Amino acid sequence: MNGIWIVTMKIFELKRQSDFSGFVALTQELVIQSAAGRKLFLNSIFMTDKELIATELDNIQSAIAVINQNANKKDISTLYLLLSEIKDIEKTLSGLGNNDVLNDIELFEVKTFALTAKKIFEIVQKFVFSNQLLLKAQTDFDLQVFDIVMKALDPENSGVATFYIYDAYSEKLAQLRKEESQATDTQHLADLQIQILEIEHEIRVSLSGQLKPYAGDLTTALNRVAYLDLLFAKAQFAERFELCCPKISDSQTEYIGIFNPEVKAILNERGNFYQKTDIVFGNYPTLITGINMGGKTVMLKTLALCQMLFQYGFYVPATQADIMIKDKIMFSFTDEQNHLQGLSSFAAEMKKVNEIIAQITENSKVLVLIDELARTTNPKEGASIVSAMLEILQVKQVSSFITTHYDIETTCRRLRVKGLKDDFNKDRLFDTKKITDNIRSLLNSIDYQLIDDTDGGTPNEAIRIAEMLGVNKELIIRAKTKIKQHTH
Questions:
Q1: What domain range includes position 381?
Q2: What are the pLDDT tens digits along the chain (488 aa)?
Q3: Same domain for 421 and 350?
Q4: HSE (side-chain half, CA atoms, 13 Å) at 430
């Protein structure tokens, strides 16, 4: 069945959708240390503002430079450890700002955060002051707020991340607690405990009042820490997957050496070589044809993945990239969900095509990716639908790709997967008992580069590929006979 996805949402909303592009699966590899950082990541927006995207990319680039300095290894390790101790205390700080009286656990949260956050900022400021970390759109933060908080919540100046109502807060409290420890009369003990509870509550009220003016500063600090955590996670992520810093383009998108990290990892594990490819496109449709197993669907998913990474503020899987900003990404791939909705393959697909046309009629600044349009209907009508869709996309000047196996008449740009390599022995005999080995050999024999297709036809290598894979000989012979009959 055919499913469509319109990407303009926050990341936590993407997790509720089918992961067609692989974005959700890939970003699960992010090593975010803190609960606050994970929350910020999940609330990340699909950015369409050029300055916001540029700022984030520049900040990642700066963070990568910091983590790659050998002299910073110890500080970076300490930073990660401290970040892992940061809890999401936004609710506590919100209550503090709204005149709530904090309980002992909440006061402990505030104290622990102040103690840990100050150490984090001191490390980061060391990078900033030495001009190693150049963070755009990040103003200086006054660390004195942490000292004020610690003075209120650590009257004994222990510097330890624990909290209780200390004796140092009240001489009367200290005296009552001493009497409590020595009391033997039950009634007297109960009276002492009531007095102690009253004084402890008064101290909590007093502390909450003292801290309230700094609730906003502490919230800002929490947001800054969460951002630093996510930023360094993105930097690590870029290094681990060998991603590049994309440039923002106003005219066309161009990828040099684009690759799909998930597919690349799978092929490398199997001992197969992953071939990176180049692709460029502008505000117009492109038709992609090519042999089965030629990577057409993977290319569409990779284009979607790259656009999403770019506009959620990440580096992208390519050697070099220049990318246009889009208001939306719309892609249509196979999706079993429509079975549950009771729609036939074709009916579901046409419903989604209609949605795409409605969207691009309102706004042409969209990236549209459609895999095997009208594949479930007869070839003649299917080809007509593909051709008509290309015409609409061309008139609307929409950046778009459609893959197909149909012979299509169109004036739009055509690309074709190059296919079996020139030096491949097409007369080679494969062992019919070793299908898996045959597939591996075949995958290594395909050139996945996309080339301009000036012939206007579709590749006719399906039967040969089936034969090479070791498919039943009788089927192959009969199929070849049918082909000869149709061509004469």
A1: 241-487
A2: 344 456 668 999 988 888 889 999 999 999 999 999 999 999 999 999 999 999 999 999 999 999 999 999 999 999 999 999 999 999 999 999 999 999 999 999 999 999 999 999 999 999 999 999 988 877 778 899 999 999 999 998 988 989 999 999 999 999 999 988 888 888 999 999 999 999 999 999 999 999 999 999 999 999 999 999 999 999 999 999 999 999 999 999 999 999 999 999 988 888 778 889 999 999 999 999 877 666 888 999 999 999 999 999 999 999 999 999 999 999 887 654 444 454 567 787 888 889 899 999 988 899 999 998 888 788 888 889 999 999 999 999 999 999 988 888 888 999 988 877 665 555 555 555 555 665 666 666 677 888 887 765 555 567 777 776 677 777 878 777 876 766 55
A3: yes
A4: 23
Residues 138, 180, single domain; the answer is yes
Same domain flag for 366 and 443: yes
CATH of the domain at 114: 1.10.1420.10
Residue type, 344: S
* Total domains in the fold of the chain: 2
In whole angstroms, give the CA distance from residue 474 to residue 335. 33
Rounded Cα distance between 432 and 411, Å, is 42
**C-alpha–C-alpha distance, residues 459 and 340, integer Å:** 35
| Cα distance between residue 253 and residue 250, in whole Å | 8
CA 302 to chain centre: 13
If asked whether residues 222 and 355 sit together in one domain, one would say: no
Considering the domain boundaries, does residue 275 fall inside one? yes
Q: Say how far apart CA 447 and CA 444 lie, in whole Å.
A: 8
Asked if the structure places residue 24 within a domain, the reply is no
SS3 label, residue 477: helix
Q: Where are the alpha helices (DSSP H) in 15-103?
A: 23-27, 35-42, 50-67, 73-83, 90-97
In a domain, 179, yes or no: yes
Same domain, 119 and 41: yes
Longest dimension (CA), the chain: 113
Together in a domain, 53 and 194:
yes
| Claim to verify: residue 158 and residue 286 sit in the same structural domain | no
Q: Give residue 23's identity as a one-letter amino acid code.
A: F
Does residue 167 fall inside a structural domain? yes
Mark whether 188 and 301 lie in a shared domain: no
241 contact partners, CB below 8 Å, separation of at least 6:
26, 29, 261, 317
The token pair at 339 is 């079975």
Last residue of some domain: 174, 209, 236?
A: 236
- CA–CA gap between residue 193 and residue 64 (Å, rounded): 56
Q: State how far the Cα of 75 lies from the Cα of 67, in Å rounded to an integer.
A: 9
Q: Which of 188, 204, 236 is the last residue of a domain?
A: 236
